[in-house]
Amino acid sequence: MGDDSEWMKLPVDQKCEHKLWKARLSGYEEALKIFQKIKDEKSPEWSKFLGLIKKFVTDSNAVVQLKGLEASLVYVENAHVAGKTTGEVVSGVVSKVFNQPKAKAKELGIEICLMYIEIEKGEAVQEELLKGLDNKNPKIIVACIETLRKALSEFGSKIILLKPIIKVLPKLFESREKAVRDEAKLIAVEIYRWIRDALRPPLQNINSVQLKELEEEWVKLPTGAPKPSRFLRSQQELEAKLEQQQSAGGDAEGGGDDGDEVPQIDAYELLEAVEILSKLPKDFYDKIEAKKWQERKEALEAVEVLVKNPKLEAGDYADLVKALKKVVGKDTNVMLVALAAKCLTGLAVGLRKKFGQYAGHVVPTILEKFKEKKPQVVQALQEAIDAVFLTTTLQSISEDVLAVMDNKNPTIKQQTSLFIARSFRHCTASTLPKCLLKPFCAALLKHINDSAPEVRDAAFEALGTALKVVGEKAVNPFLADVDKLKLDKIKECSEKVELVHGKKGGLAVDKKEFKTAPGRTAASGAAGDKDIKDSSAPKPGPLKKAPATKAGGPPKKGKPAAPGGTGNTGTKNKKGLDTKEIVEPELSIEICEEKASAVLPSNCIQLLDSSNWKERLASMEEFQKAVELMDRSEMPCQALVRMLAKKPGWKETNFQVMQMKLHVVAVMAQKGNFSKTSAQIVLDGLVDKIGDVKCGNNAKEAMTAIAEACMLPWTAEQVMSMAFSQKNPKNQSETLNWLSNAIKEFGFSGLNVKAFISNVKTALAATNPAVRTSAITLLGVMYLYVGPSLRMFFEDEKPALLSQIDAEFEKMQGQSPPAPTRGISKHSTNGTDEGEDGDEPDEGGSDVVDLLPRTEISDKITSELVSKIGDKNWKIRKEGLDEVAGIINEAKFIQPNIGELPTALKGRLNDSNKILVQQTLNILQQMAVAMGPNIRQHVKNLGIPVITVLGDSKNNVRAAALATVNAWAEQTGMKEWLEGEDLSEELKKENPFLRQELLGWLAEKLPTLRSTPTDLILCVPHLYSCLEDRNGDVRKKAQDALPFFMMHLGYEKMAKATGKLKPTSKDQVLAMLEKAKANMPAKPAAPAKATSKPVGGSAPAKFQPASVPVEDSILSSVEPKPDPKKAKALGVSSKAKSAQGKKVPSKTSLKEDEDKSGPIFIVIPNGKEQRMKDEKGLKVLKWNFTTPRDEYIEQLKTQMSSCVAKWLQDEMFHSDFQHHNKALAVMVDHLESEKEGVIGCLDLILKWLTLRFFDTNTSVLMKALEYLKLLFTLLSEEEYHLTENEASSFIPYLILKVGEPKDVIRKDVRAILNRMCLVYPASKMFPFIMEGTKSKNSKQRAECLEELGCLVESYGMNVCQPTPGKALKEIAIHIGDRDNAVRNAALNTIVTVYNVHGDQVFKLIGNLSEKDMSMLEERIKRSAKRPSAAPIKQMEEKPQRTQSISSNANILRKGPSEDMSSKLNQARSMSGHPEAAQMVRREFQLDLDEIENDSGTVRCEMPELVQHKLDDIFEPVLIPEPKIRAVSPHFDDMHSNTASTINFIISQVASGDINTSIQALTQIDEVLRQEDKAEAMSGHIDQFLIATFMQLRLIYNTHMADEKLEKDEIIKLYSCIIGNMISLFQIESLAREASTGVLKDLMHGLITLMLDSRIEDLEEGQQVIRSVNLLVVKVLEKSDQTNILSALLVLLQDSLLATASSPKFSELVMKCLWRMVRLLPDTINSINLDRILLDIHIFMKVFPKEKLKQCKSEFPIRTLKTLLHTLCKLKGPKILDHLTMIDNKNESELEAHLCRMMKHSMDQTGSKSDKDTEKGASRIDEKSSKAKVNDFLAEIFKKIGSKENTKEGLAELYEYKKKYSDADIEPFLKNSSQFFQSYVERGLRVIEMEREGKGRIHTSTGISPQMEVTCVPTPTSTVSSLGNTNGEEVGPSVYLERLKILRQRCGLDNTKQDDRPSLTSLLSKPAVPTVASSTDMLHSKLSQLRESREQHQHSDLDSNQTHSSGTMTTSSSSTANIDDLKKRLERIKSSRK
């Protein structure tokens, strides 16, 4: 027992391995319990047992083993790592479980195997089970078969591969063990269930008794298609769906799904290929030539026996085929002909596609042999030709078939037509395109008129079949001339036809037909692979969508179209009349007149043929008007055209009438459904007028319009033939000119080059030079599209003419044809159109060669010539080749039929004499050019042998072979080469030369292909063996080609193909595949619709620093071709350079000293910007990798070469690390002296340093970090900002180093990260560091988490990206990390956040596990810190940091804030060029982002400020009486000072937290609702409105987009905001305080809100919008009328300028303006007209009348006119006195407009002014004097506002006030900005003090709040920030104004300001007190608050300061002096650092 107690204490895993069986049993039981308890499949617990599961199943003790099996089953079912154990566990089950006597053990073993299959490990399981079949123990064999059978029965034939099982079946049936035979029988029955008759051929040789038994069993099987009853994990949803279907009523839908379960196994695939060539009788070739027919017969019978094998092995059958062909063609004994035909049939059926290369030779022979009448011969020949057809394509044998069609023998004609009919049945619309159909139809149409009835019938049948296959629409054009009787016969035939692919004439395929097809085809051994593949093709997708291959055509093979068919959809999606067009009948003149009179005015038709030209002109005008107004569907084009042709018709003599006629034709062609019938009526007339001087242009326009309506090819053909049937040379030359232009506009597709060329030749021979010139110009245009081959047509022209043509072609060389601009819209989507005759794609463009007359050379290839080429003497062979070359040269263009030549040339490709090989290759190149695309039928028998020559050891032979292959591929395309096994067979040969050349060729060609044949996969195993080839070059080439194979086959297929490799090879290859996956280019886009998926657009690079380099894939997709070459070049050169590197120093040591003077970094203007552009435009690789590859290093080297000293670069890229140290030392030395250079090359320096991070040498790393510390210190001193590009290509790699084991390095990296925050916003650093926490390196995780904590501590929660919530959740995950340091770091970081932010943290973190939560709570208790206010440091960051931090949303804002700020910035500035930022000095820049988003900061800081009661220093408001102080309990709690409390509460209105905002709004509402207290808000109105519209914008951009937020919350917030504003705008005195800028932003916010469609969708949304409506009306009525009018004008201007703004927005702004216009009569006197007119003037300057008229809507111009009209009406002529604020009135469009209006109204009202006089002159006097005063004051204020005369203006104002003490300057001040007001007031006081001798005032505290902004170094920002938030630009004049005052105070002269062009050049508005932007004011407020705090902290306030709270100014101190101010500024600056 003692022993027991020992093992009982052990942990479970040790028990499981214990030597005592009891211990193991207990261990297995415990393990089972553990397994059942673990709920998470990814739990780490599972991994502990990974190595033990095999022991569970192979336990030696039977009882224990059972328990082990149970535990294993649970393990496999639930553990996600179980898949790793498949191989060892299943082999254990096979060897140790299946031989157990206990049935339970066997059952569990089988269950485990099935469970492995369920978890997607089917292949491995099947492999082990098949190995088990070779075991000697019959029990094991039986169990393995049973397992396979169950697996097949449950999972189906898709998961269990049948081929390997069927292979071993015959062997199992021969077993001596009955149990094995019985089990084999059961599995055979199960397999039959799945694949039906496909199983018969492989089992045909088993014992007949067994076969009979099987047959009996098979008959009993149900006929329905079987379904899997068990699914893989990934298919489990499907299982659920299936169950639902069954419960919902059986198989209602099932049919759709199980179509795909019908046999997808082709019997042919299951067969073993038999090699027969070696089994041919030795004397076969002699016997077949024997004179005695019996001997020939013996030879043929021997072949017949061999070819009965259903699957033959590939080989060289050329000689055999040649022999059989000779018998068929030449043998006189018909019996032997039939026998030879049978042999050919057997070969074709057994070889399938591999026979394709011989098809071209055999087809003509068989067809010509149909002259035999004997039925048995005819039948044998028919079977042979049908079998041959299935091995090739109709395209490749079409030439041969068509040649035979012209034979005189009727039987041949009949049988050929019947063969065509049978071939068509195998075709689909896509494999029978128009270009193929056209020649066949032409030949068959001859046959239907043949004298022999059998020929006619056969032709009818063939045409009927074609009709059935491609539908009437495609065939009808060819049957245009067939009479009705014959047409009916064709249609009758078409109805009888049954297609192989099911009925596809545009209807959906009948499913049943599909299911029966395979059975039929498989049974008839002869029906080849096409049937079977295609018939089983309909996989699950039948009902997805009708492919858009061709309108009306059926979809690709085997895929049924959508029900509803494509036949009818085709015609619908075309412009409905394309089909009518062709068939429109000619109408009689009477019908035309009737139709025309229905749509034209009656007098119009009568006067058309009047003798008076004026009447004709008038009637034409009416005609034109009528046509222009007619609807497309109503316009009877033909009738109208006939009316135009009425006498005098096109002979019209008056050019004006003629011009009108031509114009009307053009209009009708554009607007009506203009048919070819109509076109034919007018074209003659048009061509006649095209040369007319006056009407020519109109004629050309009309022709172009007709070409657009009826397609250019048709129109051009008509026009050319008409022009050249005339004698008028002017018409001919103009027609040619028109055509040249039209081709450029319409493109070249579909044009019939042949027809043009004959006309062009006529033109070239013309005597008139203009015609010749035009013809040459036309040829030039055609050359653009057709290319050099065009010249071949004109080689026989006179040399002089030819040189002119060549000169024209020379001009065009290198130009690409322009993209077509016309004729696309209507036809591009329609597939091919009748007119366009998409029937001949080959005739357009490059295939022009097909139009050339080709010579038949087969008769010259005599048997003598062939024997010469094969002669033993090389000289004779050479002669033969020379002759061939001569024949081809002479013929120039040849037909594809070249007799015996291919076999002869093929023999010469492996000639022992290399010169002859080269000569043969040259002939083949020559042949490719001569034969053109038709050479594709020789690819298999001649092209592939050329590839074999690539393996030649001689370099020049290989080069010649490659050139030949390329010449051929250029003609044939790649498809023919890649189809079949030929290419893979070549790659299989272990010849290094062949492999590297072939792979190189494929790497070049594959990237250019859009799709490849599926056979490409056959090359992959050989590609993998090349990856491990002994030869380095082969390996290199294979690696280069890998991505391109993957591009076409996909990663999955490629990875699957590694299954057959050895484990070691597999790992290596998979690693390479991963690498290739990263570099995989996208497929080239298809011309019509892009197929390539966007690569790597998933996430911006910075969020995936160490992930797969997304950019690489993008790059290579952009330039797929050069990729492999480039990679190669880089690879080689880097090696070469590193090799040289070591030798360099010795050579250069002498020169070193001279070299090393001079700067090390060369400043290149805009160099960095250019590099960034290149990287953005993907011209170079993006700096993103896991380890740096050669191409990155090479690229960096290239980029550095232009801006780094050569000697330094050599050091930097040296292979020895000591040189890197030297380079770093030099860089440190030059850091201070070459600041500019360092900053100019910063991106390159940082990239180079990232390379050093991958070095293993510590000294380099230390040195690099040392340099980085110095570098970032320098950058922060220079106030430099890292660009995004620099950051993203450096930070991720720096963060890798934070996980270094050495402490020193980690410290350094942390220090660098710390310094980086001074040059790159912490908020943007955050995501990079966050990415670092995902590393596998625990040290790195811990350090990154610590760094995140520091960031939050230093800069507050705003740094958390994308939102604090998401960031904290990410951090919290690490609390459960297995590494203690990481856990601690995560906890500390969250505690830091807690200290900043309090309990809110728990809400942000979300759900944590109990364990983690308790750890966190414990840690928080221990830290025992009270949450303090926001960290002080937050605002003390360097100024430029604040900007970027604050650009992130405040704490609770959801969603990435970058989006928001970028949107705002777009809206803010029309000129958003960040480069322009350099032009604006920092003092003049505003940081709107800070105002936008950093409300949290304001909130946190305010309380501290108020404790010092500093507010009254700079509050520009009269502090209310003490009694008002106790506004509400809330206010009291906070502080005693009302103004500061209001400031604080207003700051909370813009909070990101909805509740905070609502509370603040409620408090303000309380104040506003009580009249006695509302006054407290005075002076805070702008501030409050700004906060409000910022909140509105926050809701619009962020809250509304956040799905997590309750929409009720948002509605509640909206209600509060709108309620508050309504309360505010009911109090008139407060409402009038709102300034223009603020009102503009407010109106913008409200209108945007009204247009927000998301709100309308909410329940209470309508109510919100109604309230907003009400509020807008209040704002319009109660605000200061000048301000609101001005605001609306500016807003309208912005909304019209902004392209993004919606027309609705502008419309609502205009509605507001109309309302204001209605209010004008009551408010006109309270409006400052000068300002309004200035605004209108600016508006008219931005939008001159012409520009306004171009607006889509006419409202803007009407609004403006109405406003001006109303003002004129109300003010009369005096309105012109109010243009004082406009600088150059004379140029102002406004003044001219007003004058016109005044004049107009004067004319209308007459002496209205007299009536005014009657009312009493006294009033006029009074008014006029008032007007004079106004003018005088306006003049003064203008001076004050101007730059130079500001002092003079102030002095005049002071004098004026002294003189007229009762004068009221209030109206002038009231409408200006607060800044301007305080400036004027202060200026007056200064003058007063000077005059009274009190000296000047030097004080900083007297400055108005806005002034203070200039004292604080505000954050830099882009120009876009200069405008206010909604795109209104605040001119720099405002800031200039402030600077001027500052300068004045500091005693500097203002005139020097002009020295600064950067500012003055920016002045874009008149220097008038501009509308200060609302955000501007808020910013000044913030700066005030911030500075005041700092001033309080850093300086003792002057005791002399007095706090006067009179007037508008804040307070002033009279004793401070300039020095004091300077010192203070210094202190503020130092405190910031």
What keywords describe this structure?
single chain, 2033 residues, mainly alpha, 108 helices, globular
How would you describe what is shown here?
It contains 108 helices and no strands. Helix 25 packs across helix 27 (484-496) and helix 52 packs parallel to helix 54 (1032-1049). With 2033 residues, the chain is mainly alpha-helical. About 19% of the residues have low confidence. The longest helix is centred in the first third of the chain and has 30 residues, at 103-132.
Give the C-alpha Rg. 46 Å
What is the global morphology?
globular
Number of strands: 0
Mean pLDDT comes to 75
Number of helices: 108
Structural class by secondary-structure content: mainly alpha
Largest sheet: none
Distance between the termini: 77 Å
Helix content: 55-70%
The proportion of strand residues reads: under 5%
Parts with pLDDT < 50 across at least 5 consecutive residues: 250-263, 503-583, 825-847, 1088-1154, 1426-1483, 1494-1510, 1517-1536, 1806-1823, 1894-1929, 1951-1972, 1995-2016
Oligomerization: single chain
Summarize the structure.
Helices cover 64% and strands 0% of the residues.
Structural topology:
Blueprint lengths: L1 H7 L3 H5 L4 H17 L7 H4 L4 H5 L4 H17 L7 H12 L5 H30 L5 H18 L6 H12 L4 H18 L12 H13 L15 H12 L6 H5 L8 H4 L13 H4 L5 H15 L10 H13 L3 H18 L4 H14 L5 H15 L4 H12 L4 H17 L7 H14 L5 H18 L1 H4 L8 H13 L14 H13 L5 H7 L30 H8 L4 H6 L5 H11 L2 H6 L5 H17 L7 H8 L10 H17 L4 H14 L6 H15 L1 H14 L3 H18 L6 H12 L4 H18 L12 H14 L50 H7 L4 H18 L9 H9 L4 H18 L7 H11 L5 H18 L2 H4 L3 H7 L3 H14 L14 H8 L4 H18 L1 H7 L5 H17 L30 H9 L3 H20 L2 H5 L3 H4 L11 H10 L13 H12 L4 H7 L4 H14 L4 H6 L1 H12 L4 H20 L6 H5 L2 H6 L6 H14 L5 H11 L5 H18 L8 H10 L6 H18 L2 H6 L4 H14 L9 H4 L2 H8 L10 H12 L19 H6 ...
